[in-house]
Amino acid sequence: MKLLVIAGPPSAGKTALVKQIVRHFVSEAKIAFLKIDVVKAYEDIELANEFGILTRKVYSGDLCPDHAGVMVLGDAVAWAKAGGADLFIVESAGLCLRCSPYLNQGLGIVVLSSISGIHTPEKMGAMVSLADIAVVTKIDLVSQAEREVLVQKIREVHPSVVLIETNALQGSSLQRLYQLIRLSDEVEEEGLLLKGNPPLGTCTICVGKKEVGWKNHFGILQRLDGPLAECLYRGE
Question: Structural domains in the chain?
Fold first, then answer.
């Protein structure tokens, strides 16, 4: 079974890209789809109704969606395999810019909108720098110059990433992506690992303490006048 993990900011065009991939492969492969979101999602219903594929969704609730992905992906891969899937697509809400949902197997795809601003790649952190493929969407809504600047910014963050520009609603220029999916290796269920390092650790904010100010907390902390690289640690 081949695995795609698709991430990106809200409204970047992730679901439109998923639909193009499913539309292209549905006649030749059995497809399973998992949506990881925070409180509400409808993509699983839309894809099941339109294409008749296996779908599920998971709400992360109080968890970061990328953390929820780490927790459920082992079971999810087993579920997709048990359903006979040849291609398993995971769409992450991707709201935690410090984390990365990509795994050491399969393909990690980040979706970025052309209209999100030229500095977006620098703000997305590991979601861009650890992706195998960057798909730039909505290219019909910006000038050629703006597109070229955005692509250059992506290259600065991740020089070796495979770049694909598309209007995902029409599915233009996606043949290279389809070829990369076909050439990708099948996943080994027992050997799945996060591709990147998780964040530094947890703190009292992570477990629900509401007081404002670093002196009221312990764990990995930061003060206003402290550089990011010099976070201080308090407590056991």
Answer: 2-191 (3.40.50.300), 200-236 (no CATH)
